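[User] Could I get a sequence and structure tokens?

[Assistant]
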Amino acid sequence: MLGTLCRTGGAVFKNSQQSLPRLWVTLSQQRCASRLPMNTVVLFVPQQEAWVVQRMGRFHRVLEPGLNFLIPVLDKVRYVQSLKEIVIDIPEQSAVSLDNVTLQIDGVLYLRILDPLKASYGVEDPEYAVTQLAQTTMRSELGKLTLDKVFRERESLNSNIVRSINQASDDWGIRCLRYEIKDIQVPPRIKDSMQMQVEAERKKRATVLESEGMRESGINVAEGRKQAQILASEGEKAERINKAAGEAQAVLAKAEAKSKAIRLLSGALAEQNGNAAASLSVAEQYVAAFSNLAKKSNTLLLPSNAGNISGMVTQAMTIYSKLAKQSPPAESMKTGEPPVQSPPAQ
């Protein structure tokens, strides 16, 4: 009996030496391995892994990372679940959109096992079940959208797929973190039609932008002409106002000068020998006017006694004397003094 126990212990120890390296293999190698870790009494569970142990064919407990002890023969590691985030490549599949366009879509699914017990006993193959669920959910969600919305609402489509997967995979102890669509393939004819539509839309936008530019250009040119005309009219108005003001000032200056000249002339006539000076001035003007005859026109109107200068001067002085007698001087009218009688013409 003792020999049998020793032989059994040696076999167990030998098997433990062969299986210990197997405890440290990666998750992908464990999934691909044909055998699970053997019960070596003392087991070391790696971090982020959960080992499901059965005792006599019934669930016993889940081994936590670190050192664990099992009873030989009675306990057996039945499932090994990884608690890391798992990336699953969803193979390409066909789906029909709402407007009856067949699409070829593939994606990537990110999930994590939250409950190793449910993941071991709730579903036969968790990865396969989630993959099939993602494919069917993606086909269902794509059937609710048109082709144009599939490209515009990829984010909302991904969130809808994640929500649908989580509702179904809650009993499996699996949590879907996110789903991303990698590529969307459309039929060649549909792709050509989409390309033509894009080119037509770009041409439309280019034509609209060109027309808007021409309209803005026309408006700017019209506004410029309007402002130019307004400024030109304002300039012409200011020029006329300035010219009128200058002419008015010139007329006032001429009138003022003429008024001063008349005052000086009247003062000179009131002095002694003023009539003689006036007669000389009239005679000079007569001679100057007579010398300019027939220079500007051939038509002449001459008095009968054109050569009698003394008679003309006497006649002018007589007219001046009569006017001086009829109208009093301006200074006497202002001061109220009686006008000074001018001496009779010589």
Observations:
- The first strand starts at residue 42 and ends at 45.
- The radius of gyration is 62 Å.
- The chain has a mean pLDDT of 76.
